[in-house]
């Protein structure tokens, strides 16, 4: 599955319930609500650089190799270690309090995060 590209936020489902479930501070939750996050993915085999550009200039970058432990950062800014796996064409990572999957579906980046039964889905359209 080729992930490389630049993707712009298009829609999401269940944002408020999810950020409440994971305990995201209200200021960070408000910042993320309906914001036009641009996700830039550079893939070279199993090596990835995954960058999210937020309005206002804030950027979060995670660099990882599938199957190897890497230093990561959550959307709330918490740093942790995780091993990203590839399962059925999806990238899968276990964050501190949720499981995150990413896949390319119909040319769009579809990300699903699940925490204690609460599912958040974000879809981004490819712009480059």
Keywords, please?
single chain; 128 residues; two-stranded antiparallel ribbon; 11 strands; globular; Calycin; lipid-binding
Summarize the structure.
The protein is mainly beta. The protein has two helices and eleven strands, in the order βααββββββββββ.
What would you note in describing this structure?
There is one protein chain. The chain is mainly beta and 128 residues long. The chain is 11% helix and 56% strand. The protein is built from 2 helices and 11 strands; from the N terminus they run E-H-H-E-E-E-E-E-E-E-E-E-E. Strands 4-3-2-1-11-10-9-8-7 form a 9-stranded antiparallel β-sheet. Strands 5-6 form a two-stranded antiparallel ribbon. Strand 9 (99-105) and strand 10 form a beta hairpin. The longest helix is centred in the first third of the chain and has 7 residues, at 15-21.
């Amino acid at each position: 599955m080729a992930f490389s590209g630049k993707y712009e936020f298009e829609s999401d489902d269940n944002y408020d319930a999810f950020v409440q479930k994971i305990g995201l501070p209200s200021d960070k939750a408000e910042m993320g609500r309906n914001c036009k996050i641009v996700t830039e993915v550079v893939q070279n085999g199993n090596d990835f650089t995954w960058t999210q550009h937020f309005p206002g200039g804030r950027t979060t970058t995670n660099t990882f190799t599938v199957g190897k432990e890497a230093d990561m950062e959550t959307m709330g800014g918490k740093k942790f270690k995780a091993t990203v796996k590839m399962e059925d064409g999806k990238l899968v990572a276990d964050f501190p309090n949720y499981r995150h999957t990413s896949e390319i579906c119909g040319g769009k980046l579809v990300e699903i995060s699940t925490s204690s039964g609460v599912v958040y889905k974000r879809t981004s359209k490819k712009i480059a």
